[in-house]
Amino acid sequence: MKPTTATQYHPEVAQQLRLLRLSGVTDSLDIRIRQAIDEKLSHLEFLQMLLGDELARRDQTRSALLLKKASLISSKTIEQFDFAACPTLNRSLVSDLLTCRFMGEACPVLICGPTGTGKSHLAQAIGHQAIRQGKDVLFITQKSLLGHLHKARITGHYDRKFARLAKVSLLIIDDYGLYPMTSPQDEDFHELVAHRYEQRSTIITSNLEFGEWDQAFARNKLLATATLDRLLHNAYRLTLQGKSYRKPRDVKKTDVARG
């Protein structure tokens, strides 16, 4: 025989909770009632548990929504980062960045290193930490970023798109300088950096060494100087070294497995 639940005994309570948008309470009400009876909890202790359930549900829902909007890869967390592959990495600085204290300072974080050394992973790991703190994050490649702005300009939605990019608490731009910028891409990038300067934090990853970052501005060196002056000011810098962790497929083993 199927047991009768507490919400079946008190359907009016369940309905009231739903109307108040306290579904987290509804989900755990039966369990908490039994727990309160078994442990002889006071009314205040019982209420605290129910409210705690609702707060936990809301935090989980918000984190899931922030993660979806951020476009972060779920596996690119700090727990999955291979520190052994980066023995020269400044672990102390990484630990500090993972607290997201730099966001309170509205400082940039610049990460450079050869292809496959974990720049994007580390940047996303910091993004995951920011989401855990309830911050809104957006991870995007420089190519996609400029492509979205170009499309928005054509369709007449440039101002709205630009405002969203300028407002996000943590903007992570991956693969800076992979494709040299021409006009008006360089102007768009400069304006975005200028709007976020000392207002919001930006993380940028690049295969270029810091001294080569002006190469991303193919035709306007003056604009490059103005942009990099803002990016480098008070920025936290990380350099990753080592060989690429992206190993090519072992053809011999593949052939044996198929043979």
Automatic annotation (TrEMBL):
**InterPro entries, per this entry?**
AAA+_ATPase, DNAC/IstB-like, IstB, IstB_ATP-bd, P-loop_NTPase
Quote the Gene3D superfamilies the UniProt record gives.
P-loop containing nucleotide triphosphate hydrolases
Q: Where are the transmembrane segments?
A: none
**What CDD domains does the record point to?**
AAA (cd00009)
Protein name, entry field: ATP-binding protein
Q: Which family does it belong to?
A: Belongs to the IS21/IS1162 putative ATP-binding protein family.
Q: Matching Pfam families, A to Z?
A: IstB_IS21 (PF01695)
Keywords for this protein = ATP-binding, Nucleotide-binding
Which GO MF terms does the UniProt record name? ATP binding
Keyword Metal-binding carried by entry: no
